[in-house]
Here is the input.
Amino acid sequence: MGMKVSPPSARRSFGALTKIISAGVVGVVGAALMVTAPAEAAESTLAAAAKQSGRYFGTAIAAGKLGDSQYTTIANREFDMITAENEMKINATEPNQNQFNFSNGDRIYNWAVQNGKRVRGHTLAWHSQQPGWMEAMSGNNLRQAMINHINGVMNHYKGKIYAWDVVNEAFADGNSGGRRDSNLQRTGNDWIEVAFRTARAADPAAKLCYNDYNIDNWSWAKTQAVYNMVRDFKARGVPIDCVGLQSHFNSQSAYNSNYRTTISSFAALGVDVQITELDIQGGSAQTYAAVVNDCLAVA
Here is the structure.
């Protein structure tokens, strides 16, 4: 079914100013694009338009770009939710075991709050961008290191982060519907559940999200596998509040009309849907409009 390899933005970075978040976003993307909205929706920025229906429009920010006035002007004007590109990932926040470093993450957090924005946290448990000390670990030692990392990062930002991508990209590409083989998966199939339970205890106020790519098309095995996990978690009382759809649309993973079915199906489980890394190769304005209207169609 044409599953693609995770693009660079999914593996390493969220891609500045391409991050569009929330189940239901409203706005104008591009100079000539108008999105269906109530007649009174004459707002001139993405954030203001989204706010009219109780939604938000977000972007990723890189700490190294905070000195670029054009970059920060656009980010400040258009968006009301901020995610760090790389600065809150595992290798950035715990470069040495039990030695946490929040300097760049705090720079982004402080910029966001000073400009009246909320912050999403990305990411706490992931097979990629682990520091060398974690990559070399396995078994019970790795499991405990994961728990300690979640506690350390979430305690630092306790009460400050709107939502955390607790676990990122844990399912395999292709048609198996199985888990991705990783050092975390090899600690035991319950590692995702443990991560979410740990996160809830660490910061009960934060929304807890599972985030992945290639889960946009409702008919794909990977989408169904994540859906089944979320349904199981909700049935058993495992804390999960949201699902992040990375939504990298390109020739191998094109926007599909069943995208709205995917959003509404996850939402029906009682979780929020957050579109976390929207990028459309080729930049079709019509596709951006379709995505936004799909969001608007789901409460």
Confidence is low (pLDDT under 50) at residues 1-39. The two ends are 30 Å apart (CA to CA). The first strand starts at residue 58 and ends at 61.
